[in-house]
């Protein structure tokens, strides 16, 4: 009799036997977990840095806007200050420095000029020149301008009645010639009276021509005797004093002295009008270099 013994493989597993555990989790079993954590940290760090960059840019824009606003405010204040100064000067000039300005037409006939220039004929009956006038009665001075005509250079004239001097300014030669004001030069107050009385100003005046010779000399002093206005007009130029020359004698009217001089080379001829509406005169001032006589 044969006894059959089942093999170990044929044995049924016990019901209470534990089955082997099956790992179903997909969690990496290597260093991939650490790499994932590092990657997530990098993302968080980048987001933090981006936030800081955005915040810094916002702060920079804010600082720039504050600076721009400050510059705009300063510019507005500066423009306001400049405008106030200009307005004050304009109003102050209107109130305190009234000016009478205009142009005077003068008809004249200079026989000497036409004889020497060989222009004396029947067709030339009279000459004409305009004079620009600016009179300041409160400041007590006058500014005059005549263009070039005949043998006369363009002339700028400053009459300062405060110090009683006249300056003839030649901008082309950069020279100033100073002399005392003539007694027949119309003063600013008298000029205003003529304008208010509507005397012939604005019409063409018949003018008498007078020629005079002057010798130019270097003054001993400049600023103190000639006044502030003449100094400001002439301090950049060569400045000379004019002395009247009559019959070989140079008369120093201010000093009451006379000296014998001859006439040297002619420097120029300049025009000075008396601006008297009822009796207009044109002085042609012929300026010469001095020549000492033995």
TrEMBL record:
Domain BRICHOS: 149-242
Official protein name in the record: Integral membrane protein 2
Membrane topology: Single-pass type II membrane protein
Biological processes per GO annotation: negative regulation of amyloid precursor protein biosynthetic process
Family statement: Belongs to the ITM2 family.
Entry's Gene Ontology molecular function annotations: amyloid-beta binding
Cellular component, GO, one term: plasma membrane
Keyword set, alphabetical order: Cell membrane, Disulfide bond, Glycoprotein, Membrane, Signal-anchor, Transmembrane, Transmembrane helix
Main location: membrane
Record field: transmembrane: 67-88
SMART domains from the UniProt entry: BRICHOS
Subcellular location: Membrane
